[in-house]
Amino acid sequence: MSGSGEQVRTLVRRLEEAMNARRLDALDDVLTPDFVRHCQATPDLRITSREQFTDFLRQDAAAFPDNVQTFRHILVDGDMAAIWATYEGTQTGQLGPFPPSGRRARFDVAGVLRVADGRIAELWITWDNVTVLGQLGHLPGA
């Protein structure tokens, strides 16, 4: 185990705060250098380092500059934590093949994090792309 339940919960909150404040330098103390992100919703995007994750967050902020991720529930079990979160943001930048829509999206996100040596080493995360693309107006009839 990499710490008490409260230490793991605090680490997960530090991740949330760093992402929302755009303090990506704070991720050096939160994520391991070899951090891995697994995401079924973005199967072609491989993230196998803290540096790649930081770049991903920069790209996300370029598409949704006002994005906020709110971790509504955090459950801790040993060196693992589960989160239920809400992502909100207005798409004013390019999102993959989708041009800026100027529309706001709000959707739920589920994730599981693994902690090793006092930092987050791995993240499994997913959301419903149909919900997101529909809210942004990128689906027919949306």
From TrEMBL:
SUPFAM superfamilies: NTF2-like (SSF54427). InterPro entries: Cyclase_SnoaL-like, NTF2-like_dom_sf. Pfam families: SnoaL. Gene3D superfamilies: 3.10.450.50. Transmembrane segments: none annotated. One of its GO terms (biological process) is polyketide metabolic process. It comes from the Bacteria. PANTHER family: ESTER CYCLASE, POLYKETIDE CYCLASE SNOAL-LIKE DOMAIN. This is SnoaL-like polyketide cyclase. It comes from Geodermatophilus dictyosporus.
